[in-house]
Amino acid sequence: MTRIIAVGMGLIVAAAAAPPTTHNTDGVLFSEQFDDADLTQRDWYDGLRPRIVGGAEAGKGCIEYDWPDPATGKAVGSSTVRHLIEPTDEVYVRFYLKFSKDWGWPARKMGPHLTHFMTTENPKFAGPADTHLTVYVEPCDGKLRLIAQDIQNQDAPHGPTQGPIRRGYNATVYDSKDAPLTADTWHCVEAQFRLNTLDIQADRPNPDGVVRGWVDGKLVVERADVILRSTDYPKMKFNQFILAPYAGPGLLPHAQMLWIDELVVGTKRIGQLPNPAATHPAE
Predict the structure, then answer these.
(1) Which residue of 168, 227, 277, 282 is 20 to 30 Å from 195, comparing CA positions?
(2) Per-residue pLDDT tens for 68-91?
(3) How many CA atoms lie within 13 A of 15 on its CB side?
(4) Residue 278 covered by a domain
(5) Tens digit of pLDDT for each residue in 183-223?
(6) Are 240 and 118 in contact (CB under 8 A)?
(7) Phi and psi dihedrals of 39, rounded to 5?
(8) Does residue 274 fall inside a structural domain?
(9) ∠ CA 117-118-124, rounded to 5°
């Protein structure tokens, strides 16, 4: 059972209870444990400068992102990395996330950006902000935030699906009601995006797209009536995952770090590791 908490100004908040799940290996498109830096051997591309450190949720390592100078907003240590996936109408991601002990949230309640999915309507090196559709999975002020944005559709026949362009951007934002993401603790973050269907004969989208998010196994965001694409792009599918933490110049209050581990992308919900140490033991 889901209860909508608030709707307004593009902000959509939901909360719900969900039974616990165990790790699911069905429908996995790719997985990454970040135990070593040889990402090219596992089909990652683009920046390919990962900083792998210990202290992982499972296994030997995790990827580290460091903001030594908040004025720049750009994480160092590890660069943006991308991974293509088999085109699909529905995609899930699961990863473990940990913030440094002194983590502070941006005063403007923005991000940091963290992970993204893009579609077949943009090339493999396109920037994630200006696209025909990018969906985001990120933290914001301790909450789980899911975002859909399609700035590049401003000149399409039906225009953007995520609202008018203002100051160069548009977005629909889905926030969890509570703020379960705390510092100095590994949290399991999961998200699901399903593209809406299209009524080609009537030249209109059907409001049946899905956006869901979980933190530590609890369903915290759920909408099953969203529009993510229009009939301008009937062949649109998700086909690219991007890991690109970014905070924006001057938004973070001080130097800080975060870590990501045990990432899985698939076409079905993956769920939490039942026992990280036993499932993926350190060597």
Answers:
(1) 168
(2) 988 887 888 899 999 999 999 999
(3) 8
(4) no
(5) 999 999 999 999 999 999 999 999 999 999 999 999 999 99
(6) yes
(7) -65, -30
(8) no
(9) 120
